[in-house]
Design brief:
This protein is 62% helix and 0% strand. The chain is mostly helical and 300 residues long. The protein has a single domain (12-47, 56-299), classed as ADP-ribosylation/Crystallin J1 (ADP-ribosylglycohydrolase fold, Orthogonal Bundle), CATH 1.10.4080.10. The model has no long low-confidence stretch (mean pLDDT 94).
Length: 300
């Protein structure tokens, strides 16, 4: 399938705001039905309100927001210091830790105990993808963007599998933020140059082949990075109506806030959030306003 053309009417500021705000809204949309694993449970969760975000409890900052905020705060400081970034993650975990899954808990516990990134984890997950995604905002220096995203991901997961998936999403997001929609060649070039596994390469190569059948959905609390990457790329390639795609994510159920955050950020970078339902923006919690403020500061 030929990717749709870039949308010149959407300016850089709108795409950046969509990227930052979309991450928060996508996470809270997914949270509405994240624990629903059958149609009856989804219907019960959506009864009365429909497809609207589930805001976090007052005063709590969800993992999907806190992980992205860490790198954004580093950018606003004027440069990324990995040790300082680790401290941001640990401070949030000790003081809040809302929606931290088992793999993220294990990574941060090792970081706290040994004052170093996690050395081993039971499996690769999606937390490093969320943590690294804001690196896409540094696309003016592509080599720094890629290297930085890789090292941020490795803070939370020692596997190259997760780090390469994280960098692949960063490259995709950087293309979308630049107003381009033909991202598969760049992702494949990146993965080949970094000797990604054949399984990951084939998952990405398969994305353009079948516009009618999506790859398996990355369900569960912390799904496999390759599954997450392939599903997100397919949605971005073949689903031009972002609101519809996000709505279906909620109606399907079983998608974690971490994956919802990635999906919302990507759709927001591609399309902006100007046509999203007002209730999505208004009901996603205070973090939306904080992300809007960050977008304005980055513009200034």
């Amino acid at each position: 399938m030929t990717p749709p053309p870039a949308t010149p009417a959407l300016d850089t500021d709108a795409r950046r705001t969509g990227f930052l705000v979309g991450a928060v809204v996508g996470a809270r949309l997914a949270a509405r039905t994240a624990t629903c694993h059958d149609p009856d449970a989804v219907r019960e969760a959506l009864a009365g309100q429909g497809v609207v975000p589930l805001p976090p409890p007052p005063g709590r900052r969800p993992a999907a927001v806190a992980l992205g905020d860490g790198l954004l705060e580093e950018f606003l400081e004027g440069g990324v210091d990995l040790r300082r970034l680790s401290g941001r993650y640990l401070a949030w975990w000790r003081e809040d830790g809302f929606e931290a899954g088992p793999l993220l808990e294990a990574a941060l516990a090792q970081m706290a105990e040994f004052d170093a990134p996690a050395a081993t984890l039971p499996a690769a997950g999606t937390a490093p993808l969320v943590a690294a995604l804001p690196a896409a905002l540094a696309s003016a220096t592509p080599a720094t963007m890629v290297s930085g995203a890789f090292h941020v991901a490795r803070l939370l997961d020692p596997s190259e599998h997760a780090a390469l998936a994280a960098v692949a999403l960063v490259v995709t997001a950087s293309r979308l933020l630049d107003g381009q929609r033909d991202f598969i060649p760049d992702v494949l070039a990146l993965l080949r140059s970094n000797r990604a596994s054949e399984a990951m390469l084939e998952a990405v190569r398969a994305v353009p082949r079948d516009p009618r059948r999506a790859p398996p959905a990355p369900n569960g609390e912390e799904p496999d990075p390759t599954t997450t990457l392939a599903w997100l790329l397919w949605q971005l390639q073949h689903r031009p109506r972002g609101v519809e795609a996000l709505t279906e994510m909620v109606q399907r159920g079983g998608m974690s806030p971490l994956v919802g955050s990635l999906f919302g950020a990507m759709i927001g970078a591609r399309d902006g959030v100007g046509n999203w339902p007002a209730a999505w923006i208004g009901d996603a919690g205070e973090d939306v306003h904080l992300r809007e403020s960050i977008a304005r500061r980055m513009h200034g």
